[in-house]
């Protein structure tokens, strides 16, 4: 799988301010074969105009507003690549994200999911972000789809995103990934810029915490029901060695 086809799924809701940078950061990977799938979850702004004015192997689909989990599922169903990854409409990839992660997969063929680090930044432009010296920056680990690369068959093992989860659908999916003992690799390179701004959905801390706790509770319930070990200490996210051991160990 030296040069696998990669499907990049971009869910978006009213993202006209940001989405052009997100899409261009994917094209800047200079990766072939590549397809970009934009799922517009009921935008009322000019997101559709922005996307349709961008040239390249770009597929745009509109759906009535049903939530980000539904938009992600829609994208996975449309994907034709060997590998699947995601980028949210307000984020930006580093220029060699796909090269870094596909090289790791080629060197470790048993690995099914690769997760890199992200860098929290202000709402800077793509070009400003590219000029950062990442060697001097400290990345952060998160169960975040934009910093991951996933073999398509993993969705057959783990299932799709839970459409009842209005937020933290990615956290819920990664918990299920752990429960299935999928072969995961975590690496230290920064592969994504997570841009902080006034429209971040995670700005609503009570709602965010509610859905994170819901995802964790659902995981506990599934493990109890299956007879799996329930107590699994979560790693400290600022301790990379703990994170690595957690995600690359078996339950």
Short account of what is shown:
37% of the residues are buried. The protein has 251 residues and is an alpha/beta fold.
Give your account of this protein's structure:
By secondary structure, the protein is of the alpha/beta class. The chain has one domain (6-247): Spore Coat Polysaccharide Biosynthesis Protein SpsA, Chain A (Alpha-Beta Complex), CATH 3.90.550.10. Strands 3-2-1-4-7-6-8-5 form an 8-stranded mixed β-sheet, sandwiched between helices. Strand 1, helix 1 (19-27) and strand 2 (34-41) form a beta-alpha-beta unit. The protein is 35% helix and 21% strand. The protein has 9 helices and 8 strands.
Helix and strand topology:
Layout: E1 6-12, H1 19-27, E2 34-41, H2 47-52, E3 58-63, H3 68-78, E4 83-86, E5 92-93, H4 97-107, E6 113-121, H5 126-130, E7 148-151, H6 154-158, H7 169-179, E8 184-195, H8 205-226, H9 240-247
Parallel strand pairs: 1-2, 1-4, 2-3, 6-8
Antiparallel strand pairs: 4-7, 5-8, 6-7
Secondary-structure-based class equals alpha/beta
Radius of gyration computed on alpha carbons: 17 Å
* Number of DSSP strand runs: 8
Number of domains: 1
Give the helix proportion (percent range). Answer: 25-40%
The separation of the N and C termini measures: 29 Å
- CATH homologous superfamily identity: Spore Coat Polysaccharide Biosynthesis Protein SpsA, Chain A
Shape: globular
Helix-strand pattern: EHEHEHEEHEHEHHEHH
What is the name of the CATH topology? Answer: Spore Coat Polysaccharide Biosynthesis Protein SpsA, Chain A
- Taking strands numbered 1, 2, ... along the chain, how are they ordered across the largest sheet? 3-2-1-4-7-6-8-5
Major sheet:
8 strands, mixed
Report strand %.
Answer: 15-25%
Count of helical stretches? 9
Give the class-level CATH name: Alpha Beta
Give the mean pLDDT: 91
Low-confidence stretches: none
The second-level CATH architecture is Alpha-Beta Complex
């Amino acid at each position: 799988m030296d040069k696998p086809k990669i499907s990049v799924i971009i869910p978006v809701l009213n993202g006209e301010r940001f989405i052009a940078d997100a899409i261009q950061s994917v094209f800047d990977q200079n990766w072939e074969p590549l397809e970009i799938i934009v799922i517009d979850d009921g935008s009322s702004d000019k997101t559709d105009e922005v996307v349709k004015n961008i040239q390249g192997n770009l597929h745009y689909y509109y759906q009535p507003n049903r939530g980000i989990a539904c938009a992600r599922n829609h994208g996975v169903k449309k994907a034709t690549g060997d590998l699947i990854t995601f980028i949210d409409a307000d984020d930006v990839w580093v220029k060699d994200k796909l090269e870094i992660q596909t090289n790791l997969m080629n060197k470790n063929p048993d690995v099914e999911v690769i997760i890199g680090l992200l860098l929290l930044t202000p709402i800077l432009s793509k070009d400003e972000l590219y000029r950062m010296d990442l060697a001097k920056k400290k990345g952060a680990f998160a169960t975040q789809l934009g910093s991951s690369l996933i073999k398509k068959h993993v969705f057959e093992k783990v299932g799709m995103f839970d459409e009842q989860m209005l937020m933290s659908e990615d956290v819920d999916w990664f918990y299920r990934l752990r429960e299935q003992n999928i072969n995961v690799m975590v690496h230290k390179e920064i592969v994504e810029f997570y841009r902080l701004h006034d429209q971040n959905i995670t700005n609503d801390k009570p709602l965010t915490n509610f859905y994170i706790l819901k995802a964790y509770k659902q995981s506990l319930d599934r493990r109890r029901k299956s007879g799996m070990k329930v107590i699994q200490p979560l790693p400290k996210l600022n301790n990379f060695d703990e994170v690595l051991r957690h995600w690359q160990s078996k339950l």
